[in-house]
Design goal:
The complex is a heterodimer of chains A (310) and B (307). With 310 residues, chain A is an all-alpha fold. In chain A, 70% of the residues lie in helices and 0% in strands. Chain A is elongated. Classes of the chains: A mainly alpha (310), B mainly beta (307).
Amino acid sequence: MKSIGLAALMALTVAAPVNAASYDNLNAGIQLYNLGQWTGAVEQFDKALAADDLAPSLRFIAHFDRAQSRMRLSQFGSAIEDYSASLALRPGEVQVLTSRASAYAATGKLEQAAADLDSAIAARPKLGFIYGMRAALNIKRGQTEKSREDMKTSLALLPERDSGSSGIGIANWIVGQLDDAEKNFSDAADKKDPHAIYAWLWYALTEVRLGKAVPRRSLPDFDLKNWPGPIANLFLGNAAQDTVFAAAAQGEANAANGQVCEANFYVGEWLLHHRDQAGARSLIGKAASDCPTNFIEWMPAQMDQAGLSQ
Amino acid sequence: MKPMRHIWIGPSAALLAILFCGEANAQQTPDCRLLPKAMLEMQTMPDGRVTIPVQVDGHDYRLMVDTGGYINTLSPQLVKEQGYESQRSPGELRGMGTMRLDHYVTVKDFAIGRSHGKNFKFYVDDFNDAFEDGTLAPQVLGAYDVDLDFAHGKLNLISPDHCPGQVTYWTKFSATVIPIQIQGLTHIRIPVTIDGKEIMAVVDTGASTSYITMRAAKRYLKIDEKDPALKLRGNIPVNGMVGPVYNYPFESLNFGDIKVSHPRIQIVEDKVWDQTDLLLGIGILRQLHIYIAYKEKKMYITPALTD
């Protein structure tokens, strides 16, 4: 490299001068964003962007962080505007495309969401998580087979991590890779984790689907009087369906709704593998319509409902 | 910053300087000008940390600049994308949180700007972030002077062979010059003052937040758990350990004569860091223009924006 004076080079490359106040507002916004103080963060980003003198890379992040903050505040329309402003500064940025896709999906604009995910995949075709997002979106679009294909691609592209992940197990379950799912759930159930009981429920369902016995040995250390203990008791032959649904309805309204969703799904799956198609169809149908989309049961419920209605 | 267990960090910064810079130039320029080796566009991540563009076997990626890291890392996603076969390392480190770093990959051609390194080793970490494909630690950074111009989104890697002290090209005023200690081969420790009391701090661009241990808060600042100004944020994981994290209304943090008002520094349990009292993360560092002269063992600081 030539011996060129840095100051001279900098004079050529430095952008227009930044207003100290804008930059301070940006930093304050980022710190509030990190603390989860979304409203305060938005106010600071508003001020940072108002002077229109930040370097492009800083404007990018001000728009992106403001979009993320607005998402947390359920201001989806203005979040989409900010994501779009970020993309204007850095087209093809995968994280922004996938985030805007989520915002579009949240407002029911499924085709715009799909277009963003397609663009993200075009930009980084080997990023597995984008296919996972598109798999979920395709279910909402009523395209279950495309969804299954995307889920398969996602599994093939995701890095090999700790095999004890229930999320990976559910993906394997959805695409029919039950031997892999069995290992995922078995490992996850062995973890000292408050959610290990859910991994065990999935492990039990997988074993039943594979024609094996319910795995009593690996039941996590969990007080089965607490939710979702009644479902585990059903699987172990220690409780009846009615007991499960009675327990699910207990508690504060939001919690009870979640529990009922889970009861519908797990009992429905249980019936499905115990040759009660009619009972399974009814309960899985309820789970598919009532479970919140952020529940792990949502996607398998959609898939199985589609399969049962064919 | 990540605490060490059994260290195996491969070549030292000095060796990497020879391996990496290629065009080794041990002589200062006759007229004391700085010799830039790479002038890079920084990108700011959502939490304020920054990445720089690199090439990994000819493919474009972004590595987070981590002055508090021990070793360079790549994400498992990048490793998968590039089809690298990871190998078990002779020792192990702990990465962010509780992740053990015990596998590495070898990159045949690693490039920053026009500088290339051959057969470069990177540990495989366990993070998943589409804005960041890995981290760049002082293992590489320490071979250069590192010029961090956060306000203009620029990072310059500069030859360390220059006239002593003549580095502050960006300001007509004098910069604050702070002596640095290099701890554990890589970490930068500097003296700072919090609310009038001097404390040694680790400079960590890889941390989004700044922390002080309760041990140091008691010892230097006479703050304890019963202090009414202390506000519990909750039990939050820091450095892989879940425990109480407190906010405290610190008045000022001084780097020599440069003052950061009302710095956001959170107080954590002693067990989070054994050997560190105070960790300065990117939230504070972004408010400065920082020039780290590893070889000279000095840091030159001005406010981020200065004439």
